[in-house]
Each structure stands twice: as structure tokens, then as C-alpha cells.
Amino acid sequence: MSPPSTATPRRIAALALPALVVLAAEPLYVLVDTAVVGHLGSVELAAIAVGGTVMSVAAWFGTLMAYGTTGRAARRFGAGDRPAAVAEGVQASWLALGVGLLLALLGLIGAGPVAHLLAGDEQIADAAAGWMRIAAFGAPGLLLAAAGNGWMRGVQDTRRPLGIVLGANVLSAVLCPILVYPLGLGLTGSAIANVTAQTVGGLLFLFALVRETRALRPIPSIIVRQVVLGRDLLIRGAAFQACFLSATAVASRFGVAAVGAHQIGLQLWFFAALALDAVAIAAQSLVGAALGAGDADQARDVARRVTVAGGVAAVVLAALAAAGARVIPGFFTPDPAVHDQAMILWPWFVGLLPFAGVVYALDGVFIGAGDVAFLRNVTILSAVLGFLPAIWLAYAFDLGLGGVWAGLGLFTFGRFVPLVWRWRSPRWVVLGAAR
């Protein structure tokens, strides 16, 4: 068997393909959920757009937890210390539980005010708030699953997460249409299905952790180090959330059809992003293991391979999206006004994907290398100087969804150029079991 850090195409595929299914499962479920709710009406579709964007804050924390844990665990695994790698997962799970409970409480308290702040219509805001109050209960399970994914990826085990995530999301995908339509629960049924998937997934990851080790007590010093070392990912993630929350708020001001189309485009963008992140997940694990083992040449080889793979995969997705431009929006809603609005943002969606594929791959390389301070700075500058000014100017000058998605274009290119430059430099290659 190849050493843990060997970046053969077969090993990259062995890590990336199961990760692809895991990454795609959640956004695919969200797409199914959006399609189910979209047939209730435009107000319900707009409500889940607002509510889903707010609840993505919990998913953002989960991504931070998974990525940070993967990098730390991978370096220890590459250095030959699997128990230490698993211990990172134990402490990350304690952190996940605490943060998840806090987010659930904040979701219950703040659902109403936040929904009314983001939505431009009272009916949409009320519906979104009701959905969020139920969906908030899924936050602890969501974060526990993220921590579990993180340490398993760090030890290069992507098969167990595959079974857990698929099982939980298939259960929820079956529940959603049943609860929404035959049982007549509408948006409430959608929220219950979400909570079910997230809670079941979190419990299954906890069970896997207990089977792996009996050293389960919390160690505050390690948790604090994880929090401190994860601060750059947190700040970087905050920039993303500010951008996407602002985009939804601006799209809501352009009307129900516009925000419905934006929800479709944004969920497809998230789906493509997480699907492309499968190669980046392999990069995190392999780059971290190579650097932990002191193999700088192998780390550079992984970076080169995943950058090319990310770009090629994104071109394929862009071609599929272009071919389905007139068909795909109809899967989510029969409303012709929403279809017309979707055609405004579609050229942006298709044209940006190839560049985004390279960006996501390099994100994985630098997270695996622990070079997250650079990622933080690039993301903040791209948001402050590109995305946010563009979408608020779109609102001020009534530029519609085209203006909103032009901002996304600036955000993408503002990251693409410096990340490629960093990739070609030696500054991210730092050897050792920890950074």
C-alpha cells in the first residue's frame, strides 16, 4: 500500500471520490428541499431562500471545524501518530457540541428579527422565521458531523463518512416530501426533515468516535489551541457569510421572483463548490500528511495535481450548466417570472465556474498546509474591495440580479489571482507535525 502522503492519481481518487459523495449529499438534499418547497409557491420558495441563507451560518461553522480538524489531524497522521490525530477529533467534537447548542439557542431567539431584517416582504419574513425556529435544533448534530468528518479525513478515512452522511440524507430526502405534502406540514415539514438528517448524522459520527478511542474527556488546553489556530478560518468564513447574506438581502429587494431565482442559482453554486471541494479535501489530507512527514516535494506535487484537476472538473460542470440553462430552473419552480430572472444570472454562473474550480482546489492546498492567514487576508480584501461594494451599488442603481452576480465575479477573481501567485511561491511549504 502507498504511504499516507503519496499523491498517486489512484490515491487522490480514493480520497476524493467518497469525499465527493459526502460533500454533494447535503447540498443535493438542499436542492431537493428547494424543489419540494418551490412547488408550494413563490412565497415559500423565497422564505426558504432567506431562512436557508441564515441557517448556512451553522454550516459555515461546521466547514471551519471540519477543515481545521483535517489539517491538524493529517499532520499528526503523516508523522505516524494516529492516536494524536484521533484525539484532535475528540476535542473538536466537544467544541462542536458547545458551539452547536449555542447556535440553536441563538436561532430560536433571533429567528424573527433576522428574517424581518433580510426579507423585503412581511409574508416572506414570517414564513422564514417559522422555518428557522425549527431548523435551529439541527445545529448540534450538524457540527458534530462536521467534526467527525474532519478527523476521519485527517487519517485518510473517507469511507465511513460516506455511509453515515448518505444514510442520514437519504432518510431526510424521503421524509421531506412526505411531511410537506401528504401530511400537509408545508415549510414546517421541510424544517423537520432537515433537523432529522442533521441529528442522526451527528449521533452516528459520535458512535464512530467512541469505537475508535476511549480517551473522550475534554482537554481545555487542546480545545483552546484549536480555537486559536482556527481564528483565521473563522474570520475568512465571516467574510463569506457577509457576502452571501448581503447578496440575499439585496436580491430580496428586487422582488419575490428575483430572490427565488437567486436562491436557485446560489444553491447550484454551493452544490458545484462543494462538489469541486472533493479534490480539495484530498489536498488537505495529503498535503498535511506530506508536510507532517517532512516531504516538501510530495506536498508540491499534490498541489500541482489538484489545481489541474479542480480546473478541469469545473469546466465540465460549467458545460453541463450551460447545456441545461433552459431546463434546470424548471426543476425548482413552475413560475415563469422566476425562470426569467434565472436567465439573468445564468451567464455569470457558467462563466465563473472554471475559475472557481482552481480557487477551491488551492483553498484545500493552503488549508492542509496551515497557511490560513494568507487565505484570510485574500478573502477579506476580495469581499471588502469587490463583492460587497458591487452588490450594494447594484441595489442603489437598481441593477438587478446581474449586478449581484457581477459582485460574485469580482469576489472570485479577487481570490483567483493571489492564490495562483502563492501556489507558485515556496512560502506555504512549512514542514513538521504542526504549524
UniProtKB/TrEMBL annotation:
The chain crosses the membrane at residues 48-67, 94-119, 131-152, 164-185, 191-210, 233-256, 268-294, 306-332, 344-362, 374-397, 403-421. Pfam families: MatE. It is a multi-pass membrane protein. One of its GO terms (molecular function) is antiporter activity. Its main location: membrane. It is found in: Cell membrane. Keywords: Cell membrane, Membrane, Transmembrane, Transmembrane helix, Transport. GO terms for cellular component: plasma membrane. InterPro entries: DinF-like (IPR044644), MATE_fam (IPR002528), MdtK-like (IPR048279). CDD domains: MATE_DinF_like. It comes from the Bacteria. Belongs to the multi antimicrobial extrusion (MATE) (TC 2.A.66.1) family. NCBIfam families: matE (TIGR00797). This is Putative DNA-damage-inducible protein F.
